[in-house]
Amino acid sequence: MHVAPMSEDDLQHVMRAWSAALPHDQLTEQRFRRIILEDPNQEPEGLLLAKADDGSVVGLTACVARRTVKGKDGRGCEGEFRRGFLKGVFVAESEAEEAAADVLLGEAESYCRGAGKEELRVTEYAGPYLWPGIDVRYERQREILAKHGYRDVRTIEDVAVDLRDPGLRGRAERARAMLSAELEMLDWEPELLPTMQRFVVEGEELQWFPPGWESGLSQPRENVLILKKGREILGWAQYSPGRPRAGFGPILVLERARGRGYGSLLLLECMIRAREEGAEYVEAGWANTSFYTANGWNIVRRYDVLTKALAVEECQ
């Protein structure tokens, strides 16, 4: 067995091994390329393959360590700069399984220590990501990580809702009753940009608004909703139309405006619009679960976030 940085020539072999090891996460080459290979923070030394003597892929680690607080994607923040992120990992069942895990994880940890990181987290990476943690159904992958010193720190959930619910429109109409001449719900228009810039600064969710985010709002967008009171924006949400499944998120209501039902209003309006455009279900990943379940959504997937402290003495 040997370990080396992944190259473009390895892509098809990686896809086959990935599909076998991670059956709940079937990937296309296009998505793997976009999320892993084209991540501006991904460096060759952080993307490693383990191959058996016959050339078959037996494991992979995709590790990211931002070199500046914001990183090349502009989504990093001060509170997580001490962390590296293991955003993709699998070890195939094989005779080389234990050796592959030892070398791949050891190299990932060494790479992060070399970048000055004190912790390696799986995953909670706010840049281009495949999943926010390890799906709880991948018991063997989680056992491998636990054996190498990784511990659970939290659970993250994906949620979904059935838009065929006959009561949906009634709930949306009741939520709309809070609208008035002063409180408006608007489709996105570029003329709102100066007001939106102030909203982004106050909202402090910069991972959703990396440098250059304004370019994505340079045209009118019916799938981006704004809740505006007077001259200020209090809430923002967006959805991705699709048939039969649409996507929702992110959503943000300013902290000083929470507790008034504004988030539910934006959510329900997006649900109605997605249904009118042909969707039967809407999904949201990395969710604030209590908010969604209060609005009739259900948990559809769970992930464990794991972490490992990188010993200081190993940096010396």
Summarize the structure.
The mean pLDDT is 94.
Q: What does the model show?
A:
- This protein is α+β, with helices and mostly antiparallel strands and 316 residues long.
- It folds into two domains: 2-155 and 304-315, Gcn5-related N-acetyltransferase (GNAT) (Aminopeptidase, 3-Layer(aba) Sandwich); 164-279, 3-Layer(aba) Sandwich (Aminopeptidase).
- Helix content is 28%, strand content 29%.
- Strands 1, 2, 3, 4, 5, 6, 7, 8, 9, 10, 11, 12 and 13 form a 13-stranded mixed beta sheet that branches.
- Strand 9 (221-229) and strand 10 form a beta hairpin.
- Helix 5 packs across helix 7.
In total, how many beta strands? 13
Overall mean pLDDT:
94
The percent range for strand residues is 25-35%
Q: Summarize the biggest pleated sheet.
A: 13 strands, mixed
What is the global morphology? Answer: elongated
The CATH architecture of the largest domain would be: 3-Layer(aba) Sandwich
Give the class from helix and strand content and strand pairing. alpha+beta
Question: What integer value in Å does the Rg equal?
Answer: 22 Å
Please give the CATH class of the largest domain.
Alpha Beta
Helix count, DSSP H or I runs of 4 or more residues: 8
CATH superfamily of the largest domain: Gcn5-related N-acetyltransferase (GNAT)
Oligomer: single chain
Total individual domains: 2
According to CATH, what is the topology of the largest domain?
A: Aminopeptidase
CA-CA gap between termini = 28 Å
Helicity, as a percent range: 25-40%
- Give unreliable regions as ranges: none
Q: Can you write the helix and strand succession as a string?
A: EHHEEEHEEHEHEHEEEHEHE
